[in-house]
From TrEMBL, chain A:
<keyword id="KW-0325">Glycoprotein</keyword>
<feature type="transmembrane region" description="Helical">
    <location>
        <begin position="495"/>
        <end position="513"/>
    </location>
</feature>
<keyword id="KW-0812">Transmembrane</keyword>
<keyword id="KW-0337">GPI-anchor biosynthesis</keyword>
<keyword id="KW-0472">Membrane</keyword>
<dbReference type="GO" id="GO:1990529">
    <property type="term" value="C:glycosylphosphatidylinositol-mannosyltransferase I complex"/>
</dbReference>
<comment type="function">
    <text>Required for proper folding and/or the stability of a subset of proteins in the endoplasmic reticulum. Component of glycosylphosphatidylinositol-mannosyltransferase 1 which transfers the first of the 4 mannoses in the GPI-anchor precursors during GPI-anchor biosynthesis. Probably acts by stabilizing the mannosyltransferase GPI14.</text>
</comment>
<keyword id="KW-0256">Endoplasmic reticulum</keyword>
<dbReference type="GO" id="GO:0006506">
    <property type="term" value="P:GPI anchor biosynthetic process"/>
</dbReference>
TrEMBL record, chain B:
<keyword id="KW-0328">Glycosyltransferase</keyword>
<keyword id="KW-0337">GPI-anchor biosynthesis</keyword>
<dbReference type="GO" id="GO:0005789">
    <property type="term" value="C:endoplasmic reticulum membrane"/>
</dbReference>
<dbReference type="GO" id="GO:0004376">
    <property type="term" value="F:GPI mannosyltransferase activity"/>
</dbReference>
<comment type="function">
    <text>Mannosyltransferase involved in glycosylphosphatidylinositol-anchor biosynthesis. Transfers the first alpha-1,4-mannose to GlcN-acyl-PI during GPI precursor assembly. Required for cell wall integrity.</text>
</comment>
<dbReference type="InterPro" id="IPR007704">
    <property type="entry name" value="PIG-M"/>
</dbReference>
<feature type="transmembrane region" description="Helical">
    <location>
        <begin position="260"/>
        <end position="277"/>
    </location>
</feature>
<feature type="transmembrane region" description="Helical">
    <location>
        <begin position="334"/>
        <end position="358"/>
    </location>
</feature>
<feature type="transmembrane region" description="Helical">
    <location>
        <begin position="163"/>
        <end position="184"/>
    </location>
</feature>
Amino acid sequence: MTPIKQRSIIFLQDPSYIELFVKSIEQDDRDITIPASTKFKVSRQEKITIPYSEIDDRMADLFEKVQLMDVRFSENLRGCKDSPGETGQTIFNDFENMNELGLSIEVAPQTADSFEQYKYLSELTIDQVMRMLRIQDDNSLIFFQEWFKKNVFRIEDQGCSNIAQMIALRLWNALLKRNVELPVRLPDLETLSGVELVLGGKDKQEASLFLYWQTVNRPTIISKKYVRQETAELESELAIFYSTSKESWDYNPPLSGLRMKIDKEKYTDDNKMLKFVPTMVYASPTHNTLYGYQSKHELLHPIGMHPTYKISILNGDAKFPFEPLQSHGEGSCSLMFQLDVPKQIILDKYQLEHLKGKSFIDFHVHNGGMNLELPDYRIEEWGGSLTAELDESYITSHNESFEIPLHLRYGKPLGSYEEFSMPKGELYWQCQMKDANQIVEAEESFYNEKNRLGIDKFGQNMMFYHVQDMESSCSNSLQLKIPTADLKDAYSNELWTLIFVIAGTLYIIVATVRK
Amino acid sequence: MDVDYYVFTDAARFIYNGQSPYLRATYRYTPLLGWLLVPTAWQAANDYWFEFGKAVFVVCDLITGYLILRLLILMHKDTNWSLLWFFNPMVITISTRGSSESLLTAVVMAAVYRAVQRKNWQAGLWLGLAIHLKIYPFLYVPSILLFIDAGQPLWKPITRERVKFLLGVLVTFCGLTYLMFHWYGQVYLDEAFLYHLIRLDHRHNFSIYNISLYFTSFTGKSALFDGGFTLEKMAFLPQLALSAVLIPLRLCYGNYKPEVLVSSLFIQTFTFIAFNKVITSQYFVWFMCFLPVYLSLSTISLFKGVILLAGWIITQALWLYYGYRLEFRGEFDLFYSGLWTSATAMFIWNCVLIAEFIRDVTRKVKRD
């Protein structure tokens, strides 16, 4: 039986507290308790790799055909109460910079031999995932880059305080064919920031479930008992990392810390206290947070039905150049912007065309060719995406900002207004890795996820430097309201319209025929 | 810049690259317009070419103005009335922003000018082209038919000259439409003609029907009637009954006077727009080209004229005020209380104007 593998990473952002932190780790027969306090800024990630042999047969069959699928969920963080500070560099830069909102499912079936089959398998897979998650959504998927994508920006609260927790539990329970307990404690799941499910690609018959906590505010309890479940074999590995680099701008710092393996062989009735061993590794992450710069995302006021989305680049530390330097081993870099919008918003590709030669070098709007004029309730697709290559020199010479014109569709006439959230876009540098060593390091890194769809698959051997949103810790969306009519007025409106049209017609007829 | 200008120029770029103009979403015009604007696609050589279309539209404004001037001379009227077109800020703004309406007014005025000159075959050819460019000039067919051989009784409608005119209309309209269909296929008919019959028009505009259309587009049915009957399906009835039947019959039957024909065309167009499911400011140019000739015979006093004009402007300004608050400030609760009430006020005022214009022309005809 191939075991389910769990990898828990705890990352301590401020290494100066490492001694105190390690001293505060407690262990008893059943649990390891990792401390949390305001001193210790801690992020956490769980990666649980499930072999297809442990997955429900029908889903495993589908996953074998599909091979590439990425399901992501991020809670809607609706805004910051206090002005947030700069988030430090961790190894979880891919999650921290994702700027996702709600649920995103991307599928690229690798065994399809025609486009029809490619689409059919994509639709089937997305439908199955939606069923697993018990989410009702009739919007159709769009062809995005080279695969199909569906977003559900708003998931109704179904009596669950944390939707991410609900997603994680439903995925786990529906995927596994046997009754295996999710090896993460329920109280921890309640504070989850994001969930991702990635298939292993062509070579690996496995699916990886990622759980991510941006900040951990209460002690993390790692239960050793999970490895002793009778229904499945589970191996666990716990790592606590911190950066030992003296340079704060080091994108690939050496990581020191402690590691512990927990499996049935080590955790026995005779040996219930396990030992940490010191460790030192390089994560060589392909996703980095750009040093010295942040981005600010806002809608210019007044917003109206034609909002202007402004993205400004904030320079916190002038000693760093905006473009990541070739000293990191990369060749040419492109400044990119990726934005997903719900169907309430029109991305007018013809209007965006006029940004070419200004802030845009090139762009692509993926919206399944949706109608530019219809109200949102007549649109079948979930929304659209914009991928733009930006002209850095134009932007830096124009107040270090650029604007994207958006238009709102008319909404359902069910009250005064329709409220919705738009995810903030992702601003990042995409650099082609040229150095062979760097490519090998990135490929062999224990951290990088090679089979993730999304911007990772826009090119091969890419290194990403994200210009982090200044509010990334507390806001990943912008709020919009569409003024709408109220259906309650429909009867009187139609009646009075009819009366006035008849009266006007009669009045003109009288004027016409009167001698 | 008018959003439509981007639509035309994008379509022209497709044509320039050997593709169909209908690859450009929301291009709902004849391909002729795209062909005419192909030089706007020569931007690589010179950015000024992008403005070529606006120059064409301004030239069309001048041609329209010239034809108005010729008509006034032909009718022995004061040519100063043509200044109302030449220096009309609305006309100037609409063309220089890139709206193509002046192309249509030039063709329509060419048809009217030839009809007044009794060159009926040529008048028919021009009018056929106008209908091909935009459907609504078919309204002018009954008035011009009544004007040709005006002494002919209603029960003996067929005359040689009328047949010549109708043949002219059919030759250009059917010929061009067939050619475009042949070259561009069903998409041409769908976009340039059929779309206008099924369009939802949920986004607000001056029309009194607008908010009802918004509700119907959501519910798919009328709030008043059962079955598939909706208000907008009925909208054609009063609109065409008045503008294409009743008004031409009343004003043009037995009429030999060209100024009465032009006045009838003015009132018909005004009525067609007032009762339309969609009204935007560009549409006003459609009747403005007839305004100088109409005013040259009008008996409406200056005082009354000022009041009528002020009412038209005020009701429009009121609507624009609410439109601005909704569109650019995103304020709530304006659809029914603001937009519909002001659109209704404008509709009522338009009806008052139409009745006044009809009385004015009949008074003038009676007096002469």
